[in-house]
Amino acid sequence: MLDDLAYINERDVQDALGTVEKQAQQLQESFSLSGHTGLQQINSIVYAAMGGSALAALLAGSWPPISLPFTVIRNYDLPAAVNERTLVICSSYSGNTEETLSALSEAEKKGAQIAIITGGGKLQKIAEDKGYPCIILPKAVQPRYTVLSNYKALLTILEMAGVIVPNSVVADIEAAAAFLARETVRWRADVPIKDNPAKQIAQELMGKSIVIYSGPKLFPAAYKWKISFNENAKHIAWANQLPEFNHNEFIGWSKQPTNKPYVVIDLRSTLEHPRVQKRFDVSTKLLSGMRPDPIVVQAQGETILQQILWTSALGDFVSIYLALLNGLNPAPVDLVEKFKKELEL
Questions:
Q1: Could you tell me the sign of the dihedral formed by the alpha carbons of 78, 164, 59, 149, in that order?
Q2: Distance of CA 64 to CAs 207, 218, 228, Å?
Q3: Among 44, 174, 255, 274, which is 20 to 30 Å from 207 by CA?
Q4: What is the Cα gyration radius of the chain?
Q5: Is the peptide bond between 243 and the residue preceding it cis, with omega within 30 degrees of 0?
């Protein structure tokens, strides 16, 4: 099925595979800020977003180094400590995400400095009306396919705020984009199953609930796998990270239920803390026979940025191939749209 290009083209109507194959190009985009771009002195940064928009900030939490405290908020409320020396970055592709709009309203009440990343909607109008620094994201089939654009936009704002080193960031981004473009060719639809690890992994996942584990540095990739499986494949998945896993969830695998209808994926990096790497080995040893043997994905790349991008992109391909195995069009998320309409009633 996954080597049948006619079948793939019939199901993948919006060309999700083509979109994720080209996502390295998003890292080469350059953004300009509209509005009043001058900031007063800040002592912390809060990023308010949901879903795929929040993922860009998780990526920034792993790379690059940010010289001020950086907090990601995925709900309606801001931390009590937010004040006039806090930069609050509100991000929503649609511009209408109610949690993000609520956080923006709180930021205004607290006198915080504000910047916005959006594709339009209410956020864009507020930015235009009030002169907030704003970056408009390019159009896409679905917000989750613009994560790297959102990430690049966030880096642009962080550079404006003076909390990252621009020259080093630009060089690393360019190297990572070139690396990612080379690697994604291996996972394309025209590469047969026998030579295509993304197709092979997708076949192993059919009919099972998916649990993804990583260390802290690769957790943005693990979280992206969770998002992609749920939205692309319409296939339930969860994600967690070590070492937290060993303090609670680890023991949960040891007993009930005895028949575990799951598949476990370990996303591993040689750049994680050595003790985290050892925890994967010891966990697998002690849980042998109690949980499914994990599918181990060893991140490729010379830097943590390259490894995160490589692993995230592989997850995109795997999730789309799983959607095709499930007989589904990867792009639409109709139930989410229905949910939003029900909330308005």
A1: positive
A2: 38, 13, 24
A3: 255
A4: 20
A5: yes
Reduced to 3 states, what is the DSSP secondary structure of residue 114? strand
Domain boundaries, the chain: 5-9+189-325, 14-177
CA distance 23 to 8: 19
DSSP 67-119: SS-EEEE-SS---TT--TTEEEEEEESSS--HHHHHHHHHHHHTT-EEEEEES
Residue 149 burial (CB count, 10 A): 24
- Burial of 187 from C-beta contacts in 10 A (0-12 / 13-18 / 19+): buried
Class of domain 14-177 as given by CATH = alpha beta
Distance CA 66, CA 74 (A): 20
**pLDDT tens readout for residues 65-75:** 999 999 999 99
Contact 217, 272 (CB under 8 A): yes
- The two structure tokens encoding residue 99: 């949690």
Distance (Å, whole) CA 217 – CA 304: 7
Mean pLDDT, the chain, integer: 95
The amino acid at residue 35 is: G
Query: Would the pTM count as exceeding 0.90?
Result: yes
pLDDT digits (tens, 9 = 90+) for 129-156: 999 999 999 988 888 899 999 999 999 9
Q: What Cα–Cα distance (Å) separates residue 236 from each residue in 116, 322, 323? A: 31, 12, 12
301: left (phi over 0), alpha (psi -120 to 50) or beta: left
Q: Decide: helix, strand or coil at residue 44.
A: strand
Decide which of 1.10.10.10, 3.50.50.60, 3.90.79.10, 3.40.50.10490 is the CATH code for 5-9+189-325: 3.40.50.10490
